[in-house]
Design goal:
The chain has eleven helices and four strands. 46% of the residues lie in helices and 12% in strands. Helix 3 packs across helix 4. The protein folds into two domains: 33 residues; 142 residues, Nitrile Hydratase, Chain A (Alpha-Beta Complex). The structure holds fe (iii) ion. Fe (iii) ion binds next to loops.
């Protein structure tokens, strides 16, 4: 008799993932080893990658310009591969704040920030970030003055956004590494600003 206690039926999406994966392996399009290596690679990405990009943009005006023009290419210059994706970098200014969401699912700049946090994928965040961004930011502890405009960017399967926060004041003599350490994942999604 089957041990009913340990039996866990697949959810709809798990079943879809397993079916697709097995089919790709069966057809010889990818191997189990390649898939495992890719999953491992993605799991090892941390937001430090994105922080490196931000700090570079703060200290290097030329790089900042390139990053805002073509995020994918600028990151590639730093040796960060952005596979088949358009990376759009949006810059916070004293009058404008940017916030990133994926209203449909969980599209996220994983190649720079790693796996998205649970709240990013929640229905609550996805629906409210576009309707009442100021209230959402306030719940994250970020109170923005009324005169600061908030722009919300809805990610898609082939377009991802990264927020370039404002460089904190009184950091003129900081090294790039030290600056990078002040940039958190949340700053690059736009639900926080760097605090030193
Ligand atoms: Fe998505």
């Amino acid at each position: 008799m089957k041990d009913q206690g340990s039996y866990q039926p697949y959810s709809y999406f798990q079943l879809m993932e397993v079916s697709l994966r097995e089919l790709l392996v069966e057809k010889g399009i990818v191997t189990e080893a390649q898939l495992a290596a890719t999953v491992e690679e993605v799991r090892n990405i941390t937001p430090e990658r994105g922080a490196r990009v931000v700090a570079k943009a703060w200290v290097n005006t030329e790089f900042r310009k390139k990053l805002l023009q073509d995020g994918t290419r600028a990151c590639e210059e730093l040796g960060l591969e952005i596979p088949a994706l358009k990376l759009v970098v949006v810059e916070n200014t004293p009058t404008e704040h940017n916030l990133v969401v994926c209203t449909l699912c969980s599209c996220y700049p994983r190649m720079l920030l790693g796996m998205p946090p649970e709240w990013y994928k929640s229905r609550n965040y996805r629906s409210r970030a576009v309707r009442e961004p100021r209230a959402v930011l306030s719940e994250f502890g970020l109170e923005l003055a009324q005169e600061i405009k908030i722009r919300v960017h809805d990610s898609t399967a082939d377009m991802r956004y990264l927020v370039l926060p404002m460089r904190p004041a009184d950091t003129e003599d900081w090294s790039e590494e030290r600056l990078a350490a002040s940039v958190t994942r949340d700053c690059m999604i736009g639900v926080a600003v760097p605090r030193i």
